[in-house]
User: Which sequence fits this backbone?
């Protein structure tokens, strides 16, 4: 996965006979020279203009065809790579076969007979050869098998045919409006966009499709009552579902941290007390309330209280530099800060600080919570600029929780880990599915989070059955021996490009995930098996999500071609808090949606669909 960019010009090689000197016409020998053609592709140009430009480039290049290709490489000094031919990776050749006899042709005292030959070894990464006949043009592809497989080249050939048909039908249409996608490819892309592949295509690798085996546990288990509860009228309100769980199992342990345990009854009552406090201080829908507490029961209680009060919680790392904490709070417009240190002089002016205490009633406040209201605001890292607050609504959070519990069923007796920093959106994914299902959530000590060995030992010591571990740490954890007493069933990972596969002896399932903060944590998921010739991929879209690979003009790219990963569906964020311009730039109308008003998010990540 790379950042999405456009590349101009495109350099194509073509061979010329090299017999420009009349004295060489009667000589026997191989005089062919390869000529590089640097062709600019402007999306707003028509195909007719592109042809004219290409012809001009070719005529200009032909005037210098006597310069040997190796001399040109020596003069330009391109960056050399033993895996890549210099200057040219793709070659186009053409020939006129009209009038060539099928049988022998007399040649003075000798006889010439046309023969079909198999080159055996590709000279370039890709060679496209066109043979022009009386009524047809045959196009043949020669390619390096180390780079391409037969299925990819078949898709390329189909796309080439679709492209030629489109520009011949209307040579005056702008190139930006031309799609090199066949109807069959379009059907495949539509199926993949929702995680459903057509019957004739490659089988989808769904997260729940990891097979059982003697040394491998299944990703999925038995359905739980919590999953079935989604159908009883409140599918978009996670805090109410947590309350329902607390009523169903009040004495079960909800959260475990270094300071002790918290039952579901205690979690429910304490969050109700704080929710009343928040309402007294002006908490209201779509208004962020900052939570600056270390990971543990107080922070989880505070976030649940904010949701019950109908507001949106904003996690602020209390150990972060003062400038970042100030920025997150002031940028969000939060006027309430929940903190363990109410007298902290670093608090921005005008912000009311609260510490949890008992109110007059342990009952939940009577607050209407609608699916479209904000549930939380989490800021991006700011690695590409100023951190932006991403606004996520209750319906997006509910979709994440529902998908998680459908895919990784959980319930009483299950033990989940809470390892991610609260300012990292993965924490959203760790906390709420566990508490909705009635599992026990174990909060890792901050000292363990970045130490793979310490984290590995803690996970197995706590008896975790499901845990999310960020990619770099997960790759290190996979290399450590799993104790025979381990209860870990599923290791979830994401946040970076995964390069490691589990071994055949790994007793738990590994599932890779991808998703930006703007798509409510997870957009795609896929199991990672021990065997495989490719790097682990991003899997398929989760329930409620759609993904498209598009070019700069938001056109579908063919299978196997690189395109920008764009995400649509139920998990999409509302946008960036207080940044309508940036929201409009990245959240666009979805041209492939069937529902009016649907949007898609441009991730900026460049990916391709393996064929």
Assistant:
């Amino acid at each position: 996965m790379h950042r999405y960019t456009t590349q101009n010009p495109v350099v194509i090689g073509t061979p010329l006979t090299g017999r420009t000197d009349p004295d060489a016409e009667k000589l026997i020998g191989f005089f062919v020279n390869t000529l590089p053609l640097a062709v600019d592709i402007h999306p707003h140009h028509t195909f007719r203009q592109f042809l004219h430009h290409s012809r001009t480039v070719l005529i200009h290049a032909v005037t210098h065809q006597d310069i040997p290709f190796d001399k040109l490489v020596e003069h330009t000094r391109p960056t050399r790579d033993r895996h890549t031919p210099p200057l040219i990776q793709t070659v186009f050749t053409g020939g006129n076969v009209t009038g060539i006899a099928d049988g022998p042709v007399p040649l003075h005292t000798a006889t010439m007979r046309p023969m079909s030959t198999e080159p055996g070894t590709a000279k370039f990464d890709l060679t496209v050869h066109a043979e022009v006949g009386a009524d047809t043009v045959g196009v043949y592809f020669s390619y390096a098998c180390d780079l391409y497989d037969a299925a990819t080249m078949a898709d390329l050939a189909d796309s080439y045919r679709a492209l030629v048909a489109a520009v011949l039908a209307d040579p005056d249409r702008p190139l930006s409006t031309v799609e090199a996608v066949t109807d069959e490819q379009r059907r495949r892309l539509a199926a993949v966009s929702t995680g459903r592949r057509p019957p004739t295509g490659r089988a989808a690798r769904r997260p729940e499709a990891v097979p059982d085996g003697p040394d491998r546990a299944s990703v999925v288990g038995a359905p739980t009552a919590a999953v079935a509860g989604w159908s009883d009228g409140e599918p978009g309100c996670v805090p109410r579902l947590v309350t329902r769980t607390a009523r169903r199992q009040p004495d079960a342990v909800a959260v475990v941290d270094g300071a002790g345990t918290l039952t579901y009854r205690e979690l429910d009552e304490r969050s109700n007390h704080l929710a009343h406090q928040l309402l007294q201080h002006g908490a209201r829908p779509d208004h962020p309330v900052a939570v600056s507490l270390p990971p543990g029961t107080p922070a989880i209680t505070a976030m649940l209280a904010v949701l019950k009060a109908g507001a949106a919680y904003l996690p602020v790392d209390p150990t972060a530099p003062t400038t970042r904490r100030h920025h997150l709070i002031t940028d969000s417009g939060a006027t309430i800060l929940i903190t363990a240190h109410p007298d902290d002089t670093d608090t921005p002016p005008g912000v009311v600080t609260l510490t949890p205490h008992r109110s007059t009633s342990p009952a939940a406040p009577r607050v209407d919570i609608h699916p479209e209201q904000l549930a939380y605001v989490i800021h991006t890292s700011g690695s590409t600029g100023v951190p932006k607050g991403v606004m996520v609504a209750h319906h997006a959070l509910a979709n994440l929780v529902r998908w998680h519990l459908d895919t990784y069923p959980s319930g009483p007796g299950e033990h989940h880990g809470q390892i991610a920093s609260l300012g990292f959106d993965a924490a959203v994914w760790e906390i709420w599915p566990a508490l909705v299902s009635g599992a026990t959530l174990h909060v890792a000590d901050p000292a363990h989070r970045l130490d793979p060995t310490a984290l590995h030992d803690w996970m197995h010591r706590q008896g975790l059955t499901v845990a999310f571990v960020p990619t770099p740490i997960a790759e290190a954890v996979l290399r450590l021996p799993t104790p025979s007493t381990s209860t870990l069933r599923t290791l979830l990972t994401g946040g970076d490009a995964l390069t490691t596969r589990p071994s055949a002896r790994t007793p738990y399932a590994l599932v890779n995930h991808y998703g930006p903060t703007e798509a409510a944590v997870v957009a795609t998921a896929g199991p990672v098996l021990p065997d495989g010739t490719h790097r682990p991929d991003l899997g398929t879209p989760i329930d409620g999500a759609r993904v498209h690979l598009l070019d700069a003009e938001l056109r579908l790219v063919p299978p196997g071609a690189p395109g920008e990963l764009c995400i649509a569906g139920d998990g999409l964020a509302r946008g960036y808090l207080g940044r309508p311009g940036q929201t409009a730039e990245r959240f666009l109308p979805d041209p492939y949606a069937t529902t009016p008003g649907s949007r898609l998010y441009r991730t900026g990540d460049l990916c391709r669909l393996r064929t």
About this structure: Residues 119 and 398 are 57 Å apart (CA to CA). The mean pLDDT is 84. Residues 2-21+29-100+117-191 form a domain with the Chloramphenicol Acetyltransferase fold (CATH 3.30.559.30).
